[in-house]
Amino acid sequence: MAAFFRSFLDSPVGPKTTHFWGPVANWGFVAAGLVDMEKPPEMISGNMTGAMCVCSALLMRFAWMVRPRNYLLLACHASNETVQLYQLSRWAKGQGYFLSEKKEETKSQ
Question: What family does this belong to (predicted)?
Answer without folding.
Answer: Belongs to the mitochondrial pyruvate carrier (MPC) (TC 2.A.105) family.
